[in-house]
Amino acid sequence: MEIIASFHSDLQLAWPGGLGGQYIFWNDTAKVFELTESRRQFNALIGSPYATRATTNPTWSVPDAPSEMRIAVGDQTPVPMPRWQEPAGRLVNVVAHGIPIVIVGQIAPRDSVLATYRRVLAHLSDLYVERVAHADSVVGAAVGFGDTATDRMARWAELNLDEALVCNPDLGCGPVAGYGAAGPGNFRPGFAWYFGGDAAINSLALSSAGAFDLARQYLRFFAAYQRADGKITHEISQSAARVPWFTDYPFPYWHGDTTPFWVLAIGELFRASADTSFVRSLWPNVAKAYRWCVGTVGGDGCDTALSADARRRFPVARQSLEQRFWMPRAGRFAFAILNGDSLNDNLTVWPATAMSWHLFDEEHGEAMATQLARATIATDWGARTLASESPLYDPLHYNNGTVWPFVTGFLSLAEYRYHNPYAGRAQLDAIGRTFDVWGLGRNPEVFSGASFEPLETAVPQQFFSTAMFLTTLLRGAYGLDADAPHGALSLAPHLFDRPAIYAVNGVRIGAAKLDVSFDVSDTALSADARRRFPVARQSLEQRFWMPRAGRFA
What we know:
Layout: E1 2-7, E2 23-27, E3 32-36, E4 42-47, E5 51-54, E6 67-72, E7 102-107, H1 110-122, H2 124-141, E8 144-145, H3 148-163, E9 165-168, E10 172-175, E11 178-179, E12 194-195, H4 196-209, H5 212-223, E13 235-236, H6 245-248, H7 258-273, H8 276-294, H9 303-325, E14 326-327, E15 332-333, E16 336-337, E17 343-344, H10 351-356, H11 362-372, E18 378-379, E19 382-383, H12 405-417, H13 421-433, E20 461-462, H14 463-477, E21 480-483, E22 488-491, E23 500-509, E24 512-520, E25 525-531, E26 539-542
Parallel strand pairs: 22-26
Antiparallel strand pairs: 1-6, 2-3, 3-4, 4-7, 5-6, 8-23, 9-10, 11-20, 12-13, 14-15, 16-17, 18-19, 21-22, 23-24, 24-25
Helix pairs in contact: 3-14, 4-5, 4-7, 4-14, 5-7, 7-8, 12-13, 12-14, 13-14
């Protein structure tokens, strides 16, 4: 039997960088394809010691047809042709395992890359054991769940968010937004660039799940590329160090929401971890980012002044949000304020982001939660960005009607925050179903607004889709809110929609870990929290939500 491994050679920098003079050839002695470019500074090898033959082509070009490598498997003795009506392969018994195909690439001379290739081959089993041990450490350090199905999805989410961390030899180590095929040319491979907003939002899941080290790496990376005025970068190409990315292109600081999300994420990590040393190390960046957000770059840098300024602004901003966006006749919030102070009154999912932080009063929030639970927004596979009744609705338009698991998470969390656990659970389950439909443990970026089908352009592994499952499950359904600086854990579970016994193991409050369980019946809920090991201070604040007809015993 033969295994045919084929690929298209595409040794190229991510856009907008570029390489010229690429070519590929087969090195039969080393059993590798060698990919290189005109200056021979970038080199890559793809091969297998078990390869018997491969396609050849002129070394001055990259073929349009795929390059193929053939690997012999099992006994290569010719097998007699089967007789009439005899099944083919009757006499063949193939037993094979551990056949490696190794891919390496470096900004280094060919000889150095070949040495790396041989080193990888020589230590394959060690590398595999290390990878398994690392995965075990990731899932072992974060929270676990008593329910098997929930625990499986949570483990996948934890591993996915760990896989997002990518080290670029020029830029350092930071989280990319997703993985997908690059396509022809030197286009971005899915979302495998560094995105500040995605990192901040995804770090909320890490803080909730107790993966503090990874969350710190997520957030610290973007501090290194903060603009002088405090703005946090929206996106960084993998080729950013080889082109004038930060000066000649508009994309690095494109989004305004990245900066407040980054500041928010730093605060959430501190609440969960009480890591004062981390916050102190980034405090100049945080202060600059905050001042950019409020439009007062400069000042004396006094921490107490900044804190007082934030406390003064918050109730004013919250009141403005309520007064300026609320539409009394429609009984819901508008999408946007336009020039001239008129309102864009389209029903969209975006108010759910504010609701996730409980920024609306109870009456308006519950009314909005009811509106967002309607079938025009909430589908069986997630939340549409724009209601299907809008004349602007298009089920295939990225911003005007598609379903994002990321946004679905905000809707689910909003429904939980405003006491609609049935709608919240439906949207949480919708995210959960994406874990094993189009790839085991992978969560696609975006779906059609008309059917449970990813868009053709969707990235198959998008990390903000993954992260929102953990964030919503822990903060919404289980209602866990750690306040590590004060040694407290708040419990506000919304679990009456599905009576059962729920367990969350390894909930972190700073250095402490607790195992929390809820026993939910049709008429009662009890909670149990047990500390695994002692810390100096620890308290438990119970903030149980009850249905309107419920009461505390």
